[in-house]
Design brief:
It is built from 8 helices and 7 strands; from the N terminus they run αβαβαβαββααβαβα. By secondary structure, the chain is an alpha/beta fold. It has a 7-stranded parallel sheet, with helices on both faces. Helix 2 packs across helix 8. The longest helix is centred in the first third of the chain and has 21 residues. The protein is globular, with a radius of gyration of 17 Å.
Length: 216
């Protein structure tokens, strides 16, 4: 006899995610879940996004990591509320973890919550967190073949960020092939080439996000 343990876990997760989504909607808070590999530049992208949007929106960040609070401290240093979630080995965030983080935030005073999920291109795709959108970040050094190897994360993303484009001349990255693969998997998702640490391309990404926050 074979027992499917995954579906009950997902069902429980999704039920709580639906409750979180309702809380976010009632408080007019837009929530974006950032998915990426370790080292892709999630935190630097968040910092650049904060810099672009902080004059208009009240922002908070929820940091997901297996261990440490390094990234959350970097966010707090910018005067932005940040809550650290340490998963203790789990390769993704779940809605129960997120609820505990959300409970310490003042939703009535927020417009935007950015979730930095655990660095992983597989596990986080299955778990609804009550977010408005999942956004994928890929960095140039990771290679242009990632859409072929990890199609799921590209298919579920509302937008895709290609980070570290300033390193393009150094790496054998075929941007044309990458764009073609993304277009095949998810033709509706906009693609934003950026260099987060230098600010290149961030305005276009921030404009896309700001439009959605205003609608919320």
């Amino acid at each position: 006899m074979k027992l499917d343990m995954k579906q009950p876990i997902l069902d429980k997760n999704d039920a709580l995610a639906a409750q979180l989504r309702q809380r976010f909607a009632e408080n007019h808070v837009y929530v974006v879940d950032l998915l990426a590999s370790p080292g892709s530049g999630k935190t630097s992208t968040i910092l650049a996004t904060i810099e672009a949007l902080r004059d208009e929106f009240n922002i908070a960040v929820i940091e997901g990591d297996i261990a440490s609070s390094v990234d959350a401290e970097r966010i707090k240093a910018q005067g932005i509320p940040a809550v650290q979630i340490n998963t203790g080995g789990a390769c993704h965030l779940e809605s129960a973890m997120l609820k505990r983080a959300v409970d310490v935030l003042d939703l009535e005073r927020l417009d935007l919550i950015i979730i930095e999920n655990v660095g992983n291109l597989v596990c986080p795709t299955d778990f609804d967190l009550g977010e408005n959108a999942k956004v994928m970040i890929l960095s140039v050094p990771e290679g242009d073949d990632k859409p072929l190897k990890y199609p799921g994360v590209f298919q579920i993303s509302e937008a895709i960020i290609l980070n570290k484009v300033d390193t393009m001349p150094v790496f054998n990255f075929n941007e044309e092939a990458f764009r073609a693969s993304v277009m095949q998997l998810n033709p509706m998702a906009p693609l934003f080439p950026i260099a987060a640490t230098k600010g290149t391309g961030v305005d276009e990404w921030a404009t896309w996000l700001a439009e959605r926050v205003r609608q919320a």
